Amino acid sequence: MENSQADEERALRSPESEASESFQDRPLNLAAAAFDIVALAASAGGLNALSQVLSHLPANFPAAIVVVQHLDPRHRSLMADILSRRTSLPVKQAEEGDSLSPGTVYIAPPNRHLLVNPDDTLSLTQSELVHFVRPSADLLFDSVAASYKDRAIAVVLTGTGNDGVMGVQAIKKMGGTVITQDEETCEFFGMPSAAIGTGTVDFILPLPEIASALVSLVMQNSE
């Protein structure tokens, strides 16, 4: 987690910057989307992986995006600030009661579990650690599966440990789609390997191919 904090601080000093449209200007309209939500989870090495995925999603990407990145709970996170400079999509740190908007990225704050509710709102909790971490990919994926069923995609990126193992099974059980990063492009293969071991993963992809896969899956009904 300390590595993630250092990565954040270095990245925030980077000159990369792209303007994002305001959250309020994005109407909730998912008619052209095959999936309503994409949930991304990462741990060690996650800042680079998330940056690569989000930077290659188009500005008109129609699904909401929720993100769990394991971070040092002792420090304020700079993740939303950094990622907003690397994508054309709006990025914000999730807050209690946020209403999901299509094409907006919501980042779990440090030391809070992020949950998605059936009414398209977000909840934050400080309930017990799951797999020794908070926020937990498992709790996020479970809530996404319950709320969006077969219109949900879960993506497990680089990271140590096995957070996400129960969550990907919940996504698959409800008819959703599961993607993991492959071993060759992972800085740490623990989380993707554990997810693959469940037998529920639909696509094991190199990091540079994940964004295009999401575009193909989510925007397949678009003209």
Task: Note the main attributes of this structure.
223 residues; alpha/beta; Rossmann fold; 7-stranded parallel sheet; two-stranded antiparallel ribbon; 7 helices
Task: Supply the number of structural domains.
Answer: 1
The CATH C-level name is Alpha Beta
Kindly identify the CATH topology.
Rossmann fold
Structural class: alpha/beta
Strand order of the largest sheet: 3-4-2-1-7-8-9
Number of strands: 9
**Overall average residue pLDDT:** 87
**CATH homologous superfamily label:** Methylesterase CheB, C-terminal domain
- How big a fraction of the residues is strand? 15-25%
N-to-C span: 42 Å
The low-confidence runs, each spanning 5 or more residues with pLDDT under 50, are: 12-29
The general outline is globular
Please give the CATH architecture.
3-Layer(aba) Sandwich
What letter string, H or E per element, gives the SSE order? Answer: HEHEHEEEEHEHEHEH
Largest sheet, strands/sense/barrel: 7 strands, parallel
* Count, helices: 7
Radius of gyration: 15 Å
What proportion of the residues is helical, as a percent range? 25-40%
Explain what you see.
The structure is a single chain. By secondary structure, the chain is α/β, with parallel strands linked by helices. The protein has one domain: Methylesterase CheB, C-terminal domain (Rossmann fold). The protein is built from seven helices and nine strands. The strands form two sheets. Strands 3-4-2-1-7-8-9 form a seven-stranded parallel sheet, sandwiched between helices. A two-stranded antiparallel ribbon has the order 5-6. Helix 2 crosses helix 7 and helix 4 runs parallel beside helix 5. The protein is globular and about 40 Å long. 48% of the residues are buried. About 8% of the residues have low confidence.
